[in-house]
Amino acid sequence: MSAFDQLNALLQEIKSAHPQNAEELEQFRIRFLGTKNVIKPLMGEIKTVPNEQKKDFGQLINRTVSAAEAKFNALKAELEAAAEDSDAQHLDLTAPGEPLELGSRHPIAITMNRIVSIFERIGFVVADGPEIEDDWHNFTAMNTPEDHPARDMQDTFYLLNSTEMLLRTHTSPVQARTMTSQQPPIRIIAPGRVYRNETVSARSHCQFHQVEGLYIDEGVSFADMKQTLLYFAKEMFGAPKIRLRPSFFPFTEPSAEMDVWIGMDNERNYRLSKGTGWLEIMGCGMVDPDVLEMCGIDSKKYSGFAFGMGIERQALRLYDIGDIRYFFENDVRFLRQFASAM
Ligand code: DAH
């Protein structure tokens, strides 16, 4: 058989070939496209072909190789598509799904959300401020000038040795941020993280959370504050009554500490209230007129009240947790216990 005939025979074979699976396709590849393929030896035959036929012979070689490549690529795509189809056929729609790990809310977030939603129900809106705060909003606007001894109670972390920028020691600067950016009526609730330079122990931490409240309008009185806080105590603790004890905060006048009545009818409440029946929850008071003026609000026209409470202490009591540090350790064995409290 001449080299021409042999090539034509190979070309026919390529055209009619139809490998049925990956193995047969691989044999096709080795035979026609592998390093020792059957077309290669025929290429060398070009020297035996008469000169006037060399061009035709060369073209026939090229056509044969291209046909082999085209066939291989087409068949490969066909087999891959078929494999995908059969995977789809084996999909069992009744099989149980992959189990999805469900997270849970952090107990601090649960407690904060509860407090916020109680106040939202009576028209308070959530306000926000930065954790890296400046001296003016954190202290000065809260009526605590640089030489004021009240600053000692809230030592904090200053940034890059600057005395201007600090980690906020309470959520009260959100009061100043709100009052300097909007006029009354103001009714805000501001949850967030705060920092103090304190030794970490079972009872105290250098970071914790607070919720702040502020209500300013014309003719707001101490009675309005008392009634609002009583509503909160009932919703949050089911407490029938509250007690306001005189206290001092630089930014309120008069100032008070609010206790809720949890009673002493069981051992737990006796212990939580140290045998008094009262549980201390928050600081509060009428906003000092100097604070209103510093923040650009006319203290002759407007008055208001403010309150602030720590979250960790409440959550410790609510969930009977023995150590404040658990809240910040991110141990899922601890956090998982609150999954149902969402
Ligand atoms: N900022 C106070 C603190 O961290 C708590 C506080 C007391 C906030 C009285 C208030 C308030 O808004 O009226 O100790």
In short:
This protein is 40% helix and 19% strand. With 342 residues, the protein is an alpha+beta fold.
Classified in CATH, the superfamily of the largest domain is Bira Bifunctional Protein, Domain 2
Helix and strand composition category: alpha+beta
> In CATH terms, what is the fold-level topology of the largest domain?
BirA Bifunctional Protein, domain 2
- Uncertain runs: none
Rg, rounded, reads 40 Å
Q: Number of folding domains?
A: 2
- Strand order across the biggest sheet? 1-4-5-9-8-7-6
Order of helices and strands: HHHHHEEHEHEEHEEHEHEHHH
Please, what is the average pLDDT?
91
Strand coverage percent: 15-25%
Number of helices: 13
Number of strands: 9
Ends apart, CA distance between termini: 85 Å
Bound molecules: 3,4-dihydroxyphenylalanine
CATH architectural label of the largest domain? 2-Layer Sandwich
The level-1 CATH class of the largest domain: Alpha Beta
Morphology = elongated
**What oligomeric state do the depicted chains represent?**
single chain
Q: What percent of the residues sit in helical stretches (DSSP H or I)?
A: 40-55%
Largest sheet: 7 strands, mixed
Description:
This protein has 342 residues and is α+β, with helices and mostly antiparallel strands. It folds into 2 domains: 3-89, no CATH class; 107-341, 2-Layer Sandwich (BirA Bifunctional Protein, domain 2). The chain contains 13 helices and 9 strands. The chain has helices at residues 3-16, 22-33, 40-43, 51-89, 107-120, 135-138, 173-179, 222-237, 267-272, 289-294, 311-318, 326-329, 332-335; strands at 125-126, 132-134, 165-167, 186-195, 207-217, 242-249, 252-261, 278-287, 303-310. The strands form 2 sheets. Strands 1-4-5-9-8-7-6 form a 7-stranded mixed β-sheet, with helices on both faces. The chain has a two-stranded antiparallel sheet with strand order 2-3. A hairpin with a 2-residue loop joins strand 6 (242-249) and strand 7. The longest helix is centred in the N-terminal third of the chain and has 39 residues, at 51-89. The chain is elongated and about 120 Å long. The protein starts with a helix and ends in a 7-residue tail after the last helix. The model has no long low-confidence stretch (mean pLDDT 91). It binds 3,4-dihydroxyphenylalanine. 3,4-dihydroxyphenylalanine binds next to strand 8 and strand 9.
